[in-house]
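Practice problem 4.
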């Protein structure tokens, strides 16, 4: 089953390189400021009431998630392939993969307080380096030249994107980056809310392209059908004007630069702030909490009306 048939809704650090990558570019094998935004619409949506309508955000309610998460899980077979690539000396196993550590205030800024934590975060330094980001863009554009960007994967909130399952080198890289960088970051940021932060699983990932001249410029406000969402800026902010992720709770767009990541509760109303020039590329991920369907729905419904 292709991921393009699965989804209920869409969501959407210039090194000093504080988080040094164990797996930079060798994993990639080379293959061939303020924009327009429907603020009036956003403001109308802010005048919302509690609703009994919910998005399903767990494997229990969306059985397809049990399948769609599989391509993003790092296996021992993947480890053997990495070993053969001579990136590491000595025996490489899942247990030996070194996870990055992150510290609030130092490594990331937190916004939208909730209970004992925060529902929105942005890193202060890159989590992907410039070369890694460019390789992802290059592969996406190469594949798009053969099969075209998709524009109908996300129902009422379509993005111009390519699913990561269509990008083999990016997928190979991301499976390691999830274990080493992204999951540890999300556990640091949201662990106080989760019954078992080790059960975070990426259920969908895709590269989005915004193009001010001849493509999609923005994405209207929406909520994602998952527990957590993140997006990673793939090209420098100097290459476009506008952009960022708009959040209703802030009534403002949160902007990041190349390699940095914005992560948030999927239930927060948010949108892609419009660009007025240039191109903007981001890598988007929807994350579920495996085996915790009741909690996932309860957390989602508690947050969605903030």
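Answer key:
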């Amino acid at each position: 089953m292709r991921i393009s048939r699965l989804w209920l809704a869409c969501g959407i650090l210039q090194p000093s390189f504080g988080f040094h990558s164990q797996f930079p570019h060798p994993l990639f094998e080379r293959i061939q400021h303020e924009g327009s935004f429907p603020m009036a619409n956003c403001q109308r949506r802010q005048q919302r009431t509690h609703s009994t309508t919910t998005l399903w955000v767990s494997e229990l309610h969306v059985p397809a998630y049990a399948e769609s998460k599989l391509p993003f899980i790092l296996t021992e077979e993947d480890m053997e392939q990495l070993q053969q690539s001579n990136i590491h000396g000595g025996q490489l196993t899942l247990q030996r993969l070194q996870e990055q550590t992150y510290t609030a205030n130092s490594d990331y800024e937190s916004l939208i307080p909730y209970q004992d934590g925060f529902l929105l975060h942005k890193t202060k330094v890159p989590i992907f380096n410039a070369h890694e980001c460019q390789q992802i863009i290059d592969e996406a554009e190469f594949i798009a030249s053969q099969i075209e960007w998709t524009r109908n994967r996300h129902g009422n909130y379509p993005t111009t994107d390519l699913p990561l399952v269509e990008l083999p080198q990016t997928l190979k890289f991301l499976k390691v980056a999830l274990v080493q960088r992204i999951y540890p970051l999300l556990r640091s940021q949201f662990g106080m809310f989760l019954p078992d932060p080790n059960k975070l699983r990426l259920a969908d990932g895709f590269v989005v392209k915004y193009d001010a001249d001849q493509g999609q410029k923005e994405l209207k406000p929406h909520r994602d059908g998952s527990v957590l969402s993140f997006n990673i800026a793939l090209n420098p902010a100097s290459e476009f004007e506008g952009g960022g992720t708009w959040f209703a709770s802030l009534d403002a767009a949160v902007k990041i630069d190349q390699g940095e990541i914005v992560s948030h509760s999927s239930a927060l109303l948010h949108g892609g702030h419009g660009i007025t020039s240039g191109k903007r590329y981001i890598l988007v991920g929807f994350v579920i909490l495996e085996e915790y369907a009741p909690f996932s729905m309860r957390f989602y419904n508690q947050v969605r009306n903030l």
